[in-house]
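Trying the structure run again after the queue cleared.
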Amino acid sequence: MSAAFWQNKSLSELSSEEWEQVCCRCGHCCLIKLQDDTTDEIYYTRIICRYFDTGKHLCREYQNRCRLVPECLKITPDNIDSLVWMPKTCAYRILNETGDLPAWHPLKGGKVPIPPLPQNRISDAGVAEQDFEDYIIEDEDL
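Done. Tokens:
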């Protein structure tokens, strides 16, 4: 039995299609995060990008997301190491850190046991940026 594509290649060798297959569509990267300027600590909020479709767990504007939302950061093999805000459950992060996907990953036939998005989430379209701190959540499970 041959090794799976993510075991045969480095992250930078994955095709665009393979890279996209690694994503579990949890949406945690689409939650607005804040960084403390003094401590560099990252805080998740219950505010989610206006373009994230919570029913389909997909960005409705995926191809245009970085143009429509300049703060949107495209996750790539070149920047995954520096994205300290990625949740521990992110398949990209796990693959980067361990060289393999976890048993629960859909590419391994598993079901994703990801923490759900906050139940009381709100679109960023409905919150003024100066009020983002009011929506900080605990992130132990992310």
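The first strand starts at residue 31 and ends at 35. Worth checking whether this holds up in the mutant runs.
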